[in-house]
Design a protein that fits this description.
The chain has a single domain (about 30-315), classed as Alkaline Phosphatase, subunit A (3-Layer(aba) Sandwich), CATH 3.40.720.10. Helices cover about 35% and strands about 15% of the residues. The chain is built from nine helices and eleven strands. The chain has helices spanning about 5-25, 65-70, 90-100, 115-125, 175-190, 200-205, 210-230, 265, 290-300; strands at about 30, 40-45, 75-80, 130-135, 160, 190-195, 240-245, 270-275, 280-285, 290, 305. α6 (about 200-205) packs antiparallel against α7. The longest helix has 24 residues, at about 210-230. The N and C termini lie far apart (about 70 Å). Residues about 1-25 have low confidence and may be disordered. Belongs to the sulfatase family.
């Protein structure tokens, strides 16, 4: 090879490596909050495995009377809300908390690829772990407090209380989870909380149709009870935004026992939002998905987060 060619090749390769290095070290695009809000705390409740047709899609609202008749007039409801990723428990929760759809095993053996809004909240506020909590009926959701990411935010894990005592210890009753959640909120007054209620999903997997419907009604009661409790607490009263949604739905018709594909029943879920910044009694018309939730929570708390797949749902809030 002629000398001038080898020299040119060396310069070219060096330039490529330098370019790649610059690209790797370039700053991540951030979603920065657009304004200040009255919200000081955010609580996300995920009711596991409820079909839209068995809750908000039923015009009688017989399974969700408290949310439909007592809470919805105080908040904003999104009828066109979807899981556009993997319609299983862990991927659904990861989409809600990281703003990124990810394929991962559903048994708790695989951690999220990215840090969650809980990690970024702690990193940027320097708050202790006790100010951000993952509280779940399902033990495998302990992974929401973890991440395999090398990002420095990964070091700022939230506190976690999942299942009987973490991964591998089994599920617990939702009434126990809500009691635990109230105790932790009263003791630590966290600013960012996720609560998982597993009842409907567990009853459906057992093939218990009446148990499934009863579990939806119990979840409805527990959400109402939680909102009443928050509004009676001096720290949370009138400064807390509550988001109530699902991780996934279920197959339509008699196949209600299972879920996991891209059918309408598995994808179509719901979102109800209450708090000091929302439009009371409003029904939003825009189509949204799970990945918009993390960005919205960050927006409310004034926390810049790396841009993933979602954006803040600004249409939910009153004009500044």
């Amino acid at each position: 090879m002629p000398r001038f060619v080898s020299t040119y090749l060396f310069i070219f390769l060096a330039g490529v490596l330098l370019l790649e290095a610059c690209q790797t070290s370039s700053p991540t695009t951030l979603l920065t909050p657009t304004r200040a809000y009255r919200t000081k705390q955010v609580v996300l409740v995920v009711i596991d495995g409820v079909r839209y047709s068995d809750s908000w899609g039923d015009s009688s609202f017989q399974n969700i009377p408290f949310m439909a008749h007592q809470l919805a007039p105080q908040g904003v409801f999104l009828p066109r809300f979807f899981n556009q990723g993997v319609t299983y428990t862990n991927p659904g929760h990861v989409a809600l908390t990281t703003g990124h759809y990810q394929r991962l095993r559903n048994n708790g053996s695989e951690e999220p690829k990215y840090p969650s809004v809980f990690h970024y909240f702690r990193e940027q506020t320097k708050a202790p772990a006790s100010k951000a909590w993952i509280i779940a009926s399902k033990d495998k959701l302990e992974i929401l407090a973890r991440t395999e990411s090398p990002d420095q935010a990964a070091a700022f894990a939230p506190a976690v209380n999942a299942g009987n005592s973490g991964i591998g210890t089994g599920y617990r009753h939702d009434t126990t989870t809500l009691r635990v959640a109230k105790g932790l909120l009263a003791q630590h007054t966290p600013q960012l909380v996720l609560i998982n209620l597993r009842g409907p999903d567990s009853e459906a997997h057992a093939g218990n149709w009446h148990g499934y419907l009863q579990a939806i009604r119990q979840s409805d009661q527990l959400v109402f009870d939680l909102w009443q409790w928050l509004q009676a607490h001096p720290t949370y009263q009138n400064t807390t935004t509550l988001l109530v949604t699902n991780d996934h739905g279920r197959h339509l018709g008699s196949r209600f026992k299972e879920h996991g594909d891209s059918c309408e029943g598995c994808r179509h879920i719901s979102l109800l939002v209450l708090g000091p910044d929302v439009k009371p009694g409003h029904i939003a018309t825009q189509t949204r998905s799970q990945v918009d939730v993390a960005a919205t929570m960050a927006e409310l708390l004034g926390i810049p987060v790396p841009k993933r797949d979602g954006v803040p749902m600004l249409e939910l809030f009153r004009p500044e």
